[in-house]
């Protein structure tokens, strides 16, 4: 479970001490990545060096309407600072306008700036999209070269849902990963999203989720109790 979690803190008021606690928790529980605002990437990358946990930066966050050149430069600088993953917000206005060329050009600029050093996840903000727009966004993201499609920023009107994760998995198949994020606070919610097809979970509640898991001796006792 822990290796499926991107331990996340994107609140604008987060302090250095908050970020250091985030990193300490990530190391303690063995999470997959630590996802922060670009400002904190040098600190996070330094503290995570040698742990196998990947520093992750958000780009064009949280609205997605930044110019492609600005997004690309932001991604480039984040990678130079040590980011190994980039979570970029799709241009929602272009997407909802049906502007495939604009959306793909925007994402391709970021992907070119980030790779091969960093994987790129495209945040779709599914709560603002129709079902057809979700399908279209996932297809365009994969066509642009994205490694993952991601449900939400956590700053929009809704977060990850089982239905959206299942839909995105059906669209991307095995061509890309699916990251569920936004509002994931319990083990039951995390398990439901993984069952629906998520590869990664973006959450600030990773420690609480992992602590809900049964201890190894409890799991062994449960197995023995099954006839």
Automatic annotation (TrEMBL):
Record flagged with keyword Cytoplasm: yes
UniProt superkingdom: Bacteria
InterPro entries named in the record: Aldolase_TIM, DeoC, DeoC/FbaB/LacD_aldolase, DeoC_typeI
Subcellular location as annotated: Cytoplasm
Keywords: Cytoplasm, Lyase, Schiff base
SUPFAM superfamilies: Aldolase
Catalytic residues (positions): 87 (proton donor/acceptor), 150 (schiff-base intermediate with acetaldehyde), 179 (proton donor/acceptor)
GO CC field: cytoplasm
Primary location: cytoplasm
Pfam families registered for this protein in UniProt: DeoC
Pathway terms, separated by semicolons: Carbohydrate degradation; 2-deoxy-D-ribose 1-phosphate degradation; D-glyceraldehyde 3-phosphate and acetaldehyde from 2-deoxy-alpha-D-ribose 1-phosphate: step 2/2
Residue ranges, annotated region (Disordered): 205-227
Catalytic reaction list: 2-deoxy-D-ribose 5-phosphate = D-glyceraldehyde 3-phosphate + acetaldehyde
Keyword Magnesium among UniProt keywords: no
GO MF annotations, alphabetized: deoxyribose-phosphate aldolase activity
EC class: lyase
Any one biological process term the GO annotation gives: carbohydrate catabolic process
EC numbers, comma separated: 4.1.2.4
HAMAP family in the cross-refs: DeoC_type1 (MF_00114)
Job description of the protein: Catalyzes a reversible aldol reaction between acetaldehyde and D-glyceraldehyde 3-phosphate to generate 2-deoxy-D-ribose 5-phosphate.
Assigned protein family: Belongs to the DeoC/FbaB aldolase family. DeoC type 1 subfamily.
Record-linked PANTHER family: DEOXYRIBOSE-PHOSPHATE ALDOLASE (PTHR10889)
Name under which the protein is recorded: Deoxyribose-phosphate aldolase
Primary gene name: deoC
């Amino acid at each position: 479970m822990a290796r499926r979690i991107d331990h996340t803190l994107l609140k604008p008021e987060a302090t250095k001490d908050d970020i250091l606690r985030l990193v300490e928790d990530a190391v303690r529980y063995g999470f997959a990545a630590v996802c922060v605002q670009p400002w904190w990437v040098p600190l996070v990358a330094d503290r995570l060096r040698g742990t196998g946990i990947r520093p992750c930066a958000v780009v064009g966050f949280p609205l997605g309407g930044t110019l492609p050149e600005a997004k690309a430069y932001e991604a480039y600088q984040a990678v130079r600072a040590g980011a190994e993953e980039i979570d970029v917000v799709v241009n929602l206005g272009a997407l909802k306008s049906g502007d495939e060329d604009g959306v793909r050009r925007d994402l391709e600029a970021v992907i070119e700036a980030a790779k091969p050093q960093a994987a790129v996840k495209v945040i779709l903000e599914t709560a603002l999209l129709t079902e057809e727009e979700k399908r279209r966004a996932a297809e365009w993201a994969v066509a642009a070269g994205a490694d993952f499609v991601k449900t939400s920023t956590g700053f929009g009107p809704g977060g990850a849902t089982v239905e959206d994760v299942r839909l995105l998995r059906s669209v991307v198949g095995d061509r890309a990963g699916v990251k569920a994020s936004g509002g994931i606070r319990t083990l039951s919610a995390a398990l439901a999203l993984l069952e629906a097809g998520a590869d990664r979970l973006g959450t600030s509640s990773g420690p609480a989720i992992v602590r809900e898991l049964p201890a190894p001796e409890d799991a062994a006792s449960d197995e023995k109790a099954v006839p």
